Amino acid sequence: WLAVANYLPQTLAILSTEDLSVVKVIDVAGPDGVPSRVSAVYQAPTRESFVLALKDIPEVWEVFYGANPPHYGFVHDYRIEGAPKPAGPFPLRKIKVSDIMDDFFFDLS
Predict the structure, then answer these.
(1) Is the pTM of this model over 0.70?
(2) Quick check: 40 and 50 in contact, CB under 8 A?
(3) pLDDT digits (tens, 9 = 90+) for 43-57
(4) Are 55 and 35 spatial neighbours (Cβ–Cβ below 8 Å)?
(5) What ranges do the domains of the chain cover?
């Protein structure tokens, strides 16, 4: 998979690396619906995800591309057997941060 951030429109596009076809487009906006630019997209191969630094809202986004993405929130319910099914491919985790993180890096040590 390949993740491409667009300044206009303010979206993230997930492309297939086989033929560069668009698989999914995600609007980049804060909780209030105000759009944000993406300043950087990183790949976190050990987590099977892309991590986005946002320019205009204090959030970091993680988009999972692996076959078995993690679940957040309540995942056990006596009425449902097994783990809940994800809503669709490339689930999104929005992480609130105290300030805008225009850029960052991973330390694998």
Answers:
(1) yes
(2) no
(3) 999 899 999 999 999
(4) no
(5) 30-96
Using CA atoms, how far apart are residues 16 and 71, in angstroms rounded to an integer? 24
Pick the closest to residue 70 from 49, 55, 56, 51 (CA basis): 49
Model pLDDT for residues 63-99, shown as the tens digit of each residue: 999 887 776 666 666 676 666 666 678 999 999 999 9
> Closest Cα to residue 65, out of 107, 104, 6, 13?
13
The strand pairing partners of 95, in sequence order, are 60
DSSP state of 47: T
CA distance 27 to 67: 22
Query: What letters, b where the CB count within 10 A reaches 16 and e where it falls short, cover 23-44?
Result: ebebebeeeeeeebbbbebbee
In angstroms, the CA 64 to CA 94 distance is: 11
